[in-house]
């Protein structure tokens, strides 16, 4: 079945450094790739998304890249801050239908 | 916040019992999806409802069932509860348009934390 693999499972960076999280999807029909941030005890919140007709998208300190051929997509956070500490999930779907999530990356930003 | 609400926030049941979880979608959202999130894992897709009909299902047994109502509310029912059903259950709503105006962004509710003893 469809699968999304996410790495690393845990990431620790120094404040101000960059963080990169990588995902691979299996379903070639996937065309929508959102990223969610989930803080402890809270709901997942969309932080950025990208569609298959775009290779890169940026929103302030956050950027996402997509390589359709390799079925890879990545989240880049620059100038990390302690409040970026959370669990980040990548996901893949066909236009929002049957969204498959990765297992999550726990990001620690050390002050 | 997203305008999606869920009830109850927490629930404790015993093995074999049945449970109903509720979700109130954001106004105008005709599509709702339910997810199960076990501790330390990503949300797992259970099923999706569009205009009151199930239109997609993940790898969950038939004892997981749902309903969607015209007033943008929905239910997740789980029969014959098992210990492994203990998890956070999330609903997420969005707008699906057959004319190509689909908006893929899902808005999650706060979740219901279910503990099965």
Describe the structure in your own words.
The complex is a heterodimer of chains A (111) and B (117). With 111 residues, chain A is an all-beta fold. Chain A is built from no helices and eleven strands. In chain A, the strands form two sheets. In chain A, strands 2, 4, 5, 9, 10 and 11 form a six-stranded mixed sheet that branches. A five-stranded antiparallel sheet of chain A has the order 1-3-8-7-6, with no helix packed on it. Chain A is globular. The mean pLDDT of chain A is 94. Chain B is mainly β. Chain B is built from no helices and eleven strands. Chain B has strands at residues 5-7, 10-13, 19-24, 31-37, 44-50, 53-57, 64-68, 73-78, 87-95, 103-108, 112-116. In chain B, β4 (31-37) and β5 (44-50) form a beta hairpin. The chains are: A mainly beta (111), B mainly beta (117). Chain A binds chain B through residues 1, 6, 32, 34, 42-46, 49, 89, 91, 93, 95-104, and chain B through 2, 31, 33, 35, 40-45, 48, 55-56, 58-59, 90, 94, 96, 102-111.
Brief summary:
By secondary structure, chain A is an all-beta fold. Chain A is built from no helices and eleven strands.
What order do the helices and strands come in, and which of them pair?
The complex is a heterodimer of chains A (111) and B (117).
Chain A: E1 4-7, E2 10-14, E3 19-25, E4 32-38, E5 45-51, E6 56-59, E7 62-67, E8 72-77, E9 86-94, E10 97-101, E11 105-110
Parallel strand pairs in A: 2-11
Antiparallel strand pairs in A: 1-3, 3-8, 4-5, 4-9, 6-7, 7-8, 9-10, 9-11
Chain B: E1 5-7, E2 10-13, E3 19-24, E4 31-37, E5 44-50, E6 53-57, E7 64-68, E8 73-78, E9 87-95, E10 103-108, E11 112-116
Parallel strand pairs in B: 2-11
Antiparallel strand pairs in B: 1-3, 3-8, 4-5, 4-9, 5-6, 7-8, 9-10, 9-11
């Amino acid at each position: 079945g469809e699968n999304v693999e996410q790495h690393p499972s845990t990431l620790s960076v120094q404040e101000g450094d960059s963080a990169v999280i990588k995902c691979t999807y299996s379903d070639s029909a996937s065309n929508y790739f959102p990223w969610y941030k989930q803080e402890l005890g809270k709901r997942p919140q969309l932080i950025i998304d990208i569609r298959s007709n775009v290779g890169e998208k940026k929103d302030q300190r956050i950027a996402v890249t997509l390589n359709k051929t390799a079925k890879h997509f990545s989240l880049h956070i620059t100038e990390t801050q302690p409040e970026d500490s959370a669990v980040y999930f990548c996901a893949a779907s066909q236009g929002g239908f049957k969204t498959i999530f990765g297992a999550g990356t726990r990001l620690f930003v050390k002050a | 916040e997203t305008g999606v609400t869920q009830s109850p926030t927490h629930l404790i049941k015993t093995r074999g019992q049945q449970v109903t979880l509720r979700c109130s979608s954001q106004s105008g959202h005709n599509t709702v999806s339910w997810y199960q999130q076990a501790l330390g894992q990503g949300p797992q897709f259970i099923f999706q409802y569009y205009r009151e009909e199930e239109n997609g299902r993940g790898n969950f047994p038939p004892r997981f069932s749902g309903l969607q109502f015209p007033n943008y509310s929905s239910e997740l029912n789980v029969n014959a509860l098992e210990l492994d059903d203990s998890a956070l259950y999330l609903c997420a709503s969005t707008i699906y348009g057959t004319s190509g105006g689909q908006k893929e962004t899902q808005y999650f509710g706060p979740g219901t934390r279910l503990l099965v003893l």
